Amino acid sequence: MERPSLEINLPDTHEEGKLYVVDSLNNLNKLNVCPDGSEHVLDEEENTGGTGENTAVSNSRNQCLFFVTFILTLIVSLTLVSFVIFLIIQTRNKMDQISSRLISEKKNIEELKKMNNMILKHLNQSGIKE
């Protein structure tokens, strides 16, 4: 009576062995053919049935991430440009102040030269010689 049970279990074991060998070959093929990162993509495609749902979600997620990154880049760029414009305006104001001071100092120096010349003329006319 043992013999018929062995005959029934033997084909099941043989089929399980075939499935194990096929799964092992598939896993080995995945390791040899696919890079490390794409192995997970294949597993996820097998789980979803290869309908492309994963790629659609991934594409929309990538588009959203790109959009957010683009907006943040624009904000940072606008902030930097505004700061540069502010610095240019401040520098121009300081330069205007410095140039007005230089002009007034130049006028003062010219007045001092005139006064010095007048004093020298007065001294020369009064007869005081060095």
TrEMBL record:
The chain crosses the membrane at residues 65-89. Keywords: Membrane, Transmembrane, Transmembrane helix. This is LSME1 protein. It comes from Nyctibius grandis. The lineage of its organism: Eukaryota, Metazoa, Chordata, Craniata, Vertebrata. The gene is Lsmem1.
